[in-house]
Design goal:
- The chain folds into four domains: 48 residues; 47 residues; 156 residues, Ribonuclease H-like superfamily/Ribonuclease H (Nucleotidyltransferase, domain 5), CATH 3.30.420.10; 76 residues, no CATH class.
- The chain contains eleven helices and twelve strands.
- A hairpin with a 2-residue loop joins strand 10 and strand 11.
- The termini are far apart.
């Protein structure tokens, strides 16, 4: 039972005075005041020790912080945070615990409390993403160079008024940032030298994943672009995330937030100064910062160069002997059964392969990528052209 809501302190005082006068037994008094005997004895003891102030309610907060961190430890936490503004408690704990025995104070909650007390972190709004039924799945990277992911961070003006378009390339398995280059625009001819430099330095990946926009993908069959056709001829499979789901390249999206905060707020004066910022960021991201997703290790500790080197010349795409092979001519056409069929202008000058899957129905491939089907007997009608139809 508990005290009545009105005049609590006065009731406690009446209780202890009656108990001290031995007006009734403690048991009878507790029953009359509708409290337990444990509560009665507690307030009687407090009154004897402290007088009437002992009958007031006490704060439930601890008088001392049992786990209060020493000042030198707090300073170490704040020093790491000042050097790495984007790091949270987990990364700071990993950094402070690197190369030395783990101590009791290396607790994420304690470090988080210190950062909050100094106004250095704010609660993050959580967002959840659900995979819609029927959506294509992406390749899961199990080892370095299984999947590289690429994207543009988003343009911004530098101090001289010119735009900078940062293009980033990351190894999906290890979070290693392979390239971070500020370009004048997002044209494919400016991107290709960045990929060539990456291929020469790191070798070739199995898959390159991008969004669905230019220059990495296009709107035609297979979403092929000039860049992705080049990748295929190098033996690399292009892959796109599902439309409207940038979280499928979430590792790159998270890195972009930090890249923007650390290098573009405010931006540098010109392209060369901005690139120096990108290079410093990439060095720290790969060699200094611990990453939770890889066990608080650094990307450089896990990344290894690919065994597949950049060839001196592109391979000629070959097809099995039972395939029909055609060349794509100017405008994106190939000749089939005496009639022109449109596939995509991106493949001009390339060879495609066709294999019959049913009577008069042919699957069309560019290397191992299936582009669609051609129906021998399907008449597109007057004024329409015959096309490869998507699956």
């Amino acid at each position: 039972m508990s005290w009545m809501e009105t005049g609590v302190v006065q009731q406690r005082e009446q209780f202890v005075l009656a108990a001290l006068k031995h007006a009734s037994s403690i048991h009878a008094l507790c029953r009359r005041f509708r409290i337990s005997r444990k509560t009665g004895y507690k307030w009687l003891a407090r009154f004897i020790q402290q007088g009437r102030p002992g009958l007031e309610n006490r704060s439930r907060a601890p008088h001392e912080q049992a786990r209060r961190l020493p000042d030198k430890v707090v300073q170490r936490i704040l020093e790491v945070r000042r050097r790495h503004r984007s790091w949270g408690p987990k990364k700071i704990v990993a950094e402070l615990g690197r190369g030395e025995p783990r101590e009791d104070w290396l607790v994420v909650s304690s470090v988080g409390r210190i950062l909050k007390q100094h106004g250095l972190i704010k609660p993050r709004r959580l967002r959840t993403h659900q995979r819609a039924p029927g959506r294509k799945t992406r390749t899961i990277a199990q080892a370095p160079n299984d999947v590289w992911i690429v994207d543009f961070k988003g343009k911004f003006r530098m101090g001289n008024g010119q735009y900078c378009h940062p293009m980033t390339l990351m190894d999906d398995a290890t979070r290693y940032v392979l390239k971070c280059r500020g370009l004048e625009s997002q044209r494919g001819e400016l991107c290709r030298p960045v990929f060539e430099a990456a291929f020469r330095e790191f070798g070739l990946p199995k898959v390159i994943r991008s969004d669905n926009g230019k220059p990495f993908a296009d709107v035609g069959l297979g979403r092929l672009s000039t860049l992705s056709v080049w990748w295929i001829k190098l033996g690399i499979s292009p892959e796109q995330i599902n439309l409207g789901h940038p979280e499928e390249n979430g590792r790159l999206e998270r890195m972009h937030r930090e890249l923007k905060r650390d290098t573009a707020r405010p931006p540098a004066m010109n392209a060369s100064a901005q690139q120096r910022r990108f290079d410093r960021f990439r060095s720290e991201y790969n060699e200094v910062r611990p990453h939770e997703g890889i066990g608080f290790r650094r990307p450089r500790d896990l990344y290894r160069r690919s065994f597949n080197s950049l060839p001196r010349s592109l391979r000629t795409i070959e097809y099995p002997g039972h395939y029909e092979v055609r060349s794509v001519t100017d405008g994106g056409w190939f000749s089939w059964r005496g009639s022109p069929v449109y596939v995509t202008a991106t493949l001009v000058g390339e060879r495609i392969g066709l294999v019959e899957i049913d009577d008069g129905i042919w699957r069309v491939f560019f290397d191992r990528m299936e582009l669609g089907v051609v129906h021998d007997r399907l008449d597109p009608g007057p004024g329409h052209v015959k096309k490869v139809l998507p699956m």
